[in-house]
Amino acid sequence: MKDTIVGISTALGKGAISIIRVSGVDAINIVNRVFKGKNLYQQTSNAINYGHIFKGKEIIDEVLVSIMRKPKTFTREDIVEINSHGGLIVTNKILELLIREGARLAEPGEFTKRAFLNGRIDLLEAEAVMDLINAKSESARKLAMNQVTGKISNQIIILRAKIMEVMANIEVNIDYPEYDDVEEVTYQLLTTKIKEIIEPLEKLQREAHKGRIIKEGIKTIIVGRPNVGKSSILNKLIDEDKAIVTDIAGTTRDIVEGDVMIDGILLNIFDTAGIRRTKNIIEQKGVAKTMSLIEESDLIILVLNNNEALKTEDITIIKKTNKKPRIIVINKADLPTKIKLEGIVLDNVVRCNAIEEDGLIPLKNQIKALFELETIETANPAYLSNIRQQTLISQAQEALQDALTSIKKGIPIDLIQIDIKRAWNLLGEIIGATYQDDIIDQLFSHFCLGK
Fold first, then answer.
1. Could you give the CA distance from residue 94 to residue 449 in angstroms, rounded to a whole number?
2. Which of 124, 189, 129 is CA-nearest to residue 157?
3. Strand, coil or helix: what is 349?
4. Fewer CB atoms inside 10 A, N or C side of the chain?
5. 240 and 219, same structural domain?
6. Which residues of 321-345 are buried (b: 16+ CB within 10 A; e: fewer)?
7. pLDDT at 442
8. Do 281 and 401 sit in the same domain of this protein?
């Protein structure tokens, strides 16, 4: 935290500009030593200064330099940003000069980490910064933005305040039992207050999967034996001829990927090799990839051919996918029906075709119903969005449930307070009010360089 750090904050490559960011106690001094123009010490905060970066007597680039003085900056340290011409050579040359003058190359996410450690943002807001950068849909952007602005953090802060009030009442009862004007903490009162805290926690946990769906999308794979129309369904869904379609069995041998938005939610769709026994080594590897994707997917679209009788391969695939969220698509519904499903119990069955303009509407509607997409707030979403947050919420719930169990058993209230405080600490870990250094280091290591 005592070092002055430097990083490239824009993507490397050809571009109009690159931004090199410097943050720390010596930021202005370091940049001033290589900048020729106005003396940066004498310039006001939040002003842009024109000049040149020099290495000795050699001009490296024509630049604009922005000075932002602490504490009103992202890191709450002095920050200088150099806007140079884009390009690997120019950008890296300026970075090299600044490191030579005493700045240290920033670690991934170190600027955001300093913002967190200096109290500029909390941990949940810090995670949302990276989610904002990685957002793949408008709904994901809005979700991240709501977290960046503290919408979820405020809910956690309010719940922690309620828990603190309970703990304070317990402490007063224990330390000053002779005070008549202090509310007596009875088992009944404690039960009521704990349940009032558990209820919003359960809501956050219950709706957390919606945040994950908005953020990550739904990983969807299309499976079936060869020539049932998997590639045609992919092409129709994404409105692009991405997968090759022929009457030859085994045409698709590798995974073909595409994206489609349904009600503001991203579907990452994978068209897979037709599952069948084959002696072709390449096709065998494609089938093996398909089987591994089945285990990783959020949704399986299992395609059967309406115009053919069920085959052994169809039955095998049905059995292999029966424990996963899936939709059975009876494809080629525009052709005469030859498939017979009597005696086979199947859920989520739709009849479709990839020929007609609206031929896949039944499939899209079934996806909406299966994942309850219509209940997901996409205009102004406020959900937990990652496993760390969800796990801590779950553990906090368990701690409070343990406290309720202890109340039923008649355990002394001062011992029950241990579980209540555990819940308070766990909620603190979500926003970073309490944390462990190694966890913080690991979390920010996944950030971009320069952010």
1. 16
2. 124
3. strand
4. N
5. yes
6. beeeebbbbbbbbeeeeebeeeeee
7. 80
8. no
pLDDT at residue 292 tops 50: yes
Query: Which residue range forms the structural domain that includes residue 428?
Result: 130-207+384-444
CB 146 within 8 A of CB 381: yes
Instruction: Give the alpha-carbon dihedral of 358, 359, 364, 367, to 10 degrees.
Output: 160
What three-state secondary structure class fits 239? coil
**Are 100 and 200 members of one domain?**
no
Q: Are residues 71 and 138 in the same domain?
A: no
Question: Which pair of tokens denotes residue 316?
Answer: 């095998």
For 438-449, give the DSSP string.
HHHHHHHTTSPT
pLDDT-derived band of residue 29, with 50, 70 and 90 as boundaries?
very high
Which pLDDT score, from 0 to 100, does residue 253 have? 42
Judge if 224 and 370 occupy the same domain: yes
Number of domains in the chain: 3
Reading the block at residue 339, the tokens are 């498939």
**Partners of 8 in the β-ladder:** 20
Q: Are residues 145 and 95 in the same domain?
A: no
Phi/psi zone of residue 82: left (φ > 0), alpha (ψ -120 to 50 degrees), beta?
beta
Specify the DSSP class assigned to residue 42: G
Reply yes or no: is the peptide bond before residue 71 cis, omega within 30 of 0.
yes
Q: Rounded distance, CA 35 to CA 20, Å?
A: 13
Residue 250 pLDDT: 44
Please count the CA atoms within 13 angstroms of the CA of 384 that sit on its side-chain side.
Answer: 25
The Cα–Cα gap between 213 and 103 comes to 41
Last residue in a domain, options 72, 106, 140 = 106
> What CATH number is attached to the domain comprising 434?
1.20.120.430
Nearest one of 115, 75, 88 to 10, comparing CA atoms: 88
In this predicted structure, the answer to whether residue 18 has a pLDDT above a threshold of 80 is: yes
Identity of the residue numbered 186? T
Say yes or no to pLDDT of 70 above 90.
yes
Query: Do 169 and 254 share a domain, yes or no?
Result: no
147 is a domain residue:
yes
- Of 375, 403, 432, the last residue of a domain is 375
- The pLDDT assigned to 316 comes to 84
Q: In what order do the strands lie in the sheet with 326-331?
A: 256-262, 265-271, 218-223, 299-305, 326-331, 349-351
